[in-house]
Design brief:
142 residues; mainly alpha; 8 helices; 56% helix; extended
Length: 142
């Protein structure tokens, strides 16, 4: 018996999720994807990972039939759209590690009030307007 639920009881996944108070798996994946994106954006411009991520294919290149059109970068753009941030803005925000960590980690898995409680006064070169922008841009993943 787990969480007081027996094997023969019909319990929906959402009810179990509410009982455990765990973030949704999609929110965890989104958080880790944005964390990796921030790590790559902070790399040197000559790093292979950054060059490959930001490279565009030749003009005459076409995908093979049957291959998916969506790329990892387009998935990141969809994640950023939930935070109301564009890709160039995200590349700039990722340079400031504490701000990016707050947006990618807390924005995807926790509520805005919990995120604001954990903020500190050490933000490096970040001014208050950027921090306010990030705090207002983060959406709640629930």
């Amino acid at each position: 018996m787990l969480l007081g639920i027996r094997w023969y009881q019909f319990v929906q996944n959402d009810d179990v999720w509410r009982l455990t108070k765990q973030p949704k798996l999609t929110a965890i994946i989104q958080s880790r994807r944005l964390t990796l994106f921030g790590h790559i954006m902070r790399m040197d411009d000559n790093a292979d990972a950054k060059r490959i991520l930001l490279a565009s294919p030749p003009a005459d290149w076409r995908r093979q039939p049957g291959r998916p059109c969506i790329t990892w970068l387009s998935t990141v753009q969809q994640d950023l759209k939930q935070h109301h941030v564009t890709l160039p803005e995200a590349a700039d925000l990722a340079q400031n590690r504490p701000v990016w960590r707050m947006m990618s980690t807390y924005g995807a898995t926790q509520s805005l009030s919990c995120m604001l409680e954990t903020t500190t006064t050490k933000w490096g070169s970040c001014d208050g307007s950027v921090l306010l922008f990030v705090c207002l841009s983060v959406t709640i993943a629930y």
